[in-house]
Design goal:
Helix content is 29%, strand content 23%. The chain is of the alpha/beta class. The chain is elongated and about 75 Å long.
Length: 421
């Protein structure tokens, strides 16, 4: 899934850390997403990676102590004025402590002091350096001052110690930065439940009944919501590969688990909601935004009535294997949809009657909208593109055919319009 950062400008700060080489991968991710990338490097960073490397990757001159110019905008005052966000990755313990105190004794810290936009840092240092009470206090101070701190990894460090201090993966830093660039007031901190993938109904310990659903549409929707600042709970049968690690993910196997976890997630998403009549004017900011449920999962309609323990041997089964099935409980019909906007997804292969079947869900399942997808055959599953119509009680809006992340953005636009009507 390719995130679109066209028209965005990013200032990437690189400090003296063995993980400075990973900043090259980060710069590449930003450029691939369409962003304009500018780089500023401390003298210590240049000991690990050359400025020429970043110039080749970004096609922009790099700001260093040696290249600073007052006859152009390549200086610590002007370079930040054309950037939407400033991410320091890796950010050494030395730089963390300097930033928290407002010390500006090198080109990067001078640039940071002059920057008025959103600041992010991705710490990378020895565990004990990060645990030192001075560094801990500095991180707290930066947090108070609205710095976004991207937590380091816990692993074997370059120094040989094992602990927290390794730079977060470039993809995680990319996602966190993109979120700061793309978040929207409507979605920010709004609780969202998304279900995805096809459930697996156990026959025995090695066999199951399932469907062709890949979960890619749900995954794309989760990413689009994350980038807009939403608080996403993802219930999935296919894992969360390629998604930000900070998306809260619950692995689900079968229809029964999907029902119970969805009920729990919906209940939690409503917690803290205040009624408007009982509020004082000064407490209006405490109102929790109305949550959303996007029911994207392809939940099995039937499950084996008597799943077996262990593995059934072939010799125990007759030439024709008859498996007794029972209906699964319908999730949308059995969850509390009061105070939550609910959007169902409906895939059909019946070109003549599929649309009417999707429209019937509005009343039958008491949902606010339906995303209708007409499939050709089993080959339609797992593709990178989709074609969806957004159906409400009042209209049918064709969203066209597009890659699933772009289509997710279109769905969220319609969902927002629905909530505002």
């Amino acid at each position: 899934m390719q995130v679109n950062l066209n028209g965005k400008s990013i200032l990437l700060g690189v400090t003296g850390s063995i993980s400075a080489y990973k900043a090259c991968d980060l710069a590449r991710l930003f450029v691939k997403a369409g962003a304009q990338v500018h780089v500023v490097m401390t003298p210590s960073a240049q000991r690990f990676v050359s400025a020429l490397t970043f110039e080749a990757l970004t096609r922009s001159p790099v700001l260093t102590e040696e290249t600073e110019s007052w006859s152009s905008d390549l200086n610590h005052i002007e370079i930040g004025k054309k950037c939407d966000v400033f991410i320091v990755a890796p950010c050494s313990a030395n730089t963390i402590n300097k930033l928290s105190k407002g010390i500006a004794d090198n080109i990067l810290t001078q640039t940071a002091l002059a920057f008025s936009g959103t600041m992010l840092i991705a710490p990378a240092a020895n565990t004990q350096m990060l645990k030192n009470h001075y560094t801990v206090g500095s991180l707290k101070m930066l947090g108070v001052n609205d710095y976004v701190i991207i937590e380091p990894q816990e692993k074997l460090l370059a120094c040989g110690d094992v602990g927290s201090g390794a730079l977060a993966e470039p993809s995680e830093i990319f996602f966190a930065t993109a979120k700061e660039l793309l978040k929207e007031t409507f979605w920010e901190d709004r609780r969202i439940v998304v279900t995805g993938g096809g459930t697996r109904e156990k026959i025995d310990e090695v066999r199951y009944i399932s469907n062709f659903s890949s979960g890619k549409m749900a995954s794309a929707l989760c990413l689009a919501l994350y980038l807009r600042g939403a608080d996403v709970c993802y219930l999935t049968t296919v894992g969360n590969e390629g998604l930000p690690e900070s998306i809260y993910t619950i692995d689900v196997e079968n229809a029964e688990e999907m029902l119970e976890y969805t009920k729990d997630a919906v209940r939690v998403s409503k917690k803290g909601k205040m009624s408007k009549p009982s509020m004082n004017a000064s407490d209006r900011h405490l109102i929790q935004k109305e949550p959303f449920l996007f029911m994207v999962a392809a939940v099995a309609d039937f499950t084996p009535a008597f799943p077996q323990e262990g593995k059934l041997k072939k010799s125990m089964i007759e030439e024709c294997w008859k498996i007794e099935l029972k209906q699964t409980t319908d999730i949308l019909s059995n969850i509390d949809k009061i105070d939550i906007k609910t959007i169902a997804f409906k895939a059909e292969m019946d070109a003549q009657n599929g649309l009417n079947a999707a429209k019937e869900l509005l009343d039958k399942k008491q949902v606010d909208a339906v995303c209708y997808n007409l499939l050709q055959d089993s080959n339609s599953f797992g593709t990178q593109e989709n074609e969806i119509s957004f159906i409400t009680a009042g209209e049918i809006i064709p969203l066209g055919k597009a890659d699933k992340l772009s289509l997710s953005e279109a769905i969220l636009s319609q969902a927002q319009r629905l909530a505002n009507d």
